[in-house]
Amino acid sequence: MDTGEGAHSCTPRLELAFRRIESRHLSFLLVTNPKNIYYLTGFRGSAGVLLVAAEKSCLWVDPRYTLQAHIQATGAEVIEERHGLLRAAAAWLKKSKRPRIRKLPRVGFEEGNLPYAAFVQLRRATQGRVRFTAAGELLEDLRAIKDSREIECIRQAGEISCVAFEEIRNLIKPGVREADLANELEYRMRQKGAEGPAFETIVASGPRGAWPHARASLNPLEAGQFVIFDFGAIVRGYSADVTRTLYVGRPNRRARSLYKAVLGAQEAALEALRVGFQGSEPDRAARRFLEQVRLGRFFTHSTGHGVGLDVHEPPRLAKNEKRRLTAGNVVTVEPGIYIESFGGIRIEDTVLIGERGPEVLTPASKKDWVVGGS
């Protein structure tokens, strides 16, 4: 067993997490989601188990990550474990001090991340000495409010994404394959400092644009069609998410009208993106705009979602979202329309919600949407 020294002082995020744990009447929180471990401690390995506790938090890693964890992790004791990370956490829990009351200590766990078979193994290993309770999105709710460092990472990711996209605009023309454009865009984002793409880049032209999550194919672009680009860079673990839709060739009246409608819907949603508003209000504003121009039935997904360490995280901008927006939330605003046999149009930005209003963090042009024509 290898124990880290000098890195155990609790960090502000761990302190805040433990206050949330106590408010849920939990004694401990078992963290298995690598992104939540990174958020709380700074450790970026792909495998680890963190136990958040009042007196001392512990981070178990296998030998592949011992050196990395000692360098990166703060606020938790780093423990090298060669015989199963969950088994080690279970052994620690069995030996933990019991509260004065007779009830068993309650341990929160991330039910959305811990496989059922692993949970059964964990429960069996603790031999009834603790009671496990699903913690829900306890840490994801904390992550929803970004600090200045997180915002700067997302801002840089947005700038890298958009500069790379502007650089490939001259490559977007009839005959070029969707997959080649996706590859070039991802390469240029890396070239400018991105750790990689936040998700598999979408390039979908013509009728395939009616699939909101179409993968880039080997199909060549054709004149007289829309093409959707959905992409984003990662900077220090934080993602940007942006979509631009371009028209290849000379757009006709219908194409101009449809694009104008989606842009108007996004502008309406941005106007409703205010501190204290419910997450349903920007969604309602976008839908109302599209319904007024008889396109509402073609808008088939929610208006947006939080973005940060995950591309999809709280809060949501959706019909039934009652959560109120808070300064420091970073969300996407992405209305779209999808018409069978014709194609799709989506316009998306990553947006910071501030006390003075929304700030778009993905500055690629939305007005310059025609390539190869005028």
Task: Describe the overall structure.
The protein has about 375 residues and is α+β, with helices and mostly antiparallel strands. It folds into 2 domains: about 10-145, Creatinase/prolidase N-terminal domain (Creatine Amidinohydrolase, Chain A, domain 1, 3-Layer(aba) Sandwich), CATH 3.40.350; about 150-370, Creatinase/methionine aminopeptidase superfamily (Creatine Amidinohydrolase, Alpha-Beta Complex). The protein contains 10 helices and 20 strands. It has helices at about 10-25, 35-40, 65-70, 85-95, 115-125, 140-145, 150-170, 180-190, 255-270, 280-290, and strands spanning about 30, 50, 55-60, 75-80, 105-110, 130-135, 195, 200-205, 225-230, 235, 240, 240-250, 305, 315, 330-335, 335-340, 345, 350-355, 355-360, 370. The protein has a 6-stranded mixed sheet, with helices on both faces. Strands 8-9-12-20 form a 4-stranded mixed sheet, with helices on one face. A 3-stranded antiparallel sheet has the order 7-10-11. Strand 10 (about 235) and strand 11 form a beta hairpin. Helix 4 packs parallel to helix 5 (about 115-125) and helix 7 crosses helix 8. The longest helix has 21 residues, at about 150-170. The protein starts with 11 loop residues before the first helix and ends with a strand.
